[in-house]
Design brief:
six-stranded mixed beta sheet, 5 helices, Serine O-acetyltransferase, alpha/beta, Hexapep, 2 domains, Trimer_LpxA-like_sf, UDP N-Acetylglucosamine Acyltransferase, domain 1, 15 strands, five-stranded parallel beta sheet
Length: about 200
Amino acid sequence: MGRHRIVDFLNFLLQRVYESKPIEESFILDAFNKVVKDVNYHFPTVDELEIIDRITTSQNELALFLFRIGRELHLNNKDNLKAQIHFLMKDLCGCEIYFNSSIDTGFYIVHGEGTVIGSRNTIGKGFVIHQNCTIGHKMNGAGAGNVIGNNVKMYCNSSILGELKIGDNVIIGAHTMVNKNIKANMTIVSTSRLEYL
C-alpha cells in the first residue's frame, strides 16, 4: 500500500512539468528501493513508511528520490524522460545532480539547496553532502570526473574541482575548496592553503 503512495506522489509532481511524460512504475519503485538502502545505511531503524513520509513532505529524502529516478532512467536509456526529473530536482530541491554520475549505496543529502554534482563522477558508499557544495571539473564538458571513495563527507560550501581522487573516510570541512588528490582518512579544513590534519 505504501509503495503506491510513492508512485502517486511522483505522478503528482509531474503535473508541475510542461508536457510531462509518464514514467514506468518499475523505474519509480526501483528508485525508491535504492533510496531505502541509502537512508538505512545511515539510519537503520527508519522504515519504508517513514521514508515515504519524508519524501512527500520535501525533506532531505526528496532530492535523493529524484536523483535515483533520474539515474534509473539514465541507466535504461530513457533520455526523453530525464529532463523532467532534472527540472523537478532544481525546482523543488534547489540542487542539480547529473544522472551520469555514479553514486553508490548510502548517498545522503543534507539541506540540499545549492548543491551541484557535475557529470561523470564516481562516488563510493556512504557519501554525505551538505548545502551549497560543488563537485565539478576544471573544464565544462570535458574530463573523466572525480573518483571519490567510501564514507566521504562534504560540509557546507565546500567543493571538489578537477579530476581528483579522494580516498575513503575523508571529511571535507565547511568552506573548503579541494583541488588536489586526498589520501584516505584525512580531514581537510579551509585555511589559506590546503592543510592536512
